[in-house]
Write a structure and sequence with these properties.
The protein is an all-alpha fold. It has helices at 5-14, 18-28, 35-61, 69-85, 96-102. 29% of the residues are buried.
């Protein structure tokens, strides 16, 4: 599957929607790398890891009020989807620059 501009935009958006969406974007962007998709894969992977870390933290501590942290993850996802749909490679607030560094060799 070659990544056309419209296809790359769709893959960049899909990458934020669950881990399965990230995997679909990874496979779709595997042969011919598109910088937009690759950038948003790094950002989305970080958001996914934050989400799962919060879920584990809530499970281990048993403190249900920590669920408010999911709101922050949701806001990061919305910002990421907005950037991807506008085809902007801009880091997410507070954490995006770390994701760029941490995941540059993965994606």
């Amino acid at each position: 599957m070659q990544t056309t501009p419209n296809n790359s935009k769709a893959l960049a958006i899909i990458t934020y929607i669950t881990l399965i969406g990230w995997i679909i974007a990874f496979v779709g962007n595997n042969k011919q790398k598109n910088s937009l998709v690759t950038y948003h894969q790094r950002q989305a992977l970080g958001v996914q890891l934050i989400y799962f870390s919060i879920a584990v933290l809530i499970t281990l501590t048993g403190i249900p009020s920590l669920q408010v942290l999911f709101l922050g993850v949701f806001i990061l996802m919305i910002i990421g989807i907005s950037n991807a749909s506008n085809q902007i490679n801009k880091p997410l607030p507070l954490v995006g620059t770390y994701f760029e560094k941490w995941f540059e060799s993965i994606v």
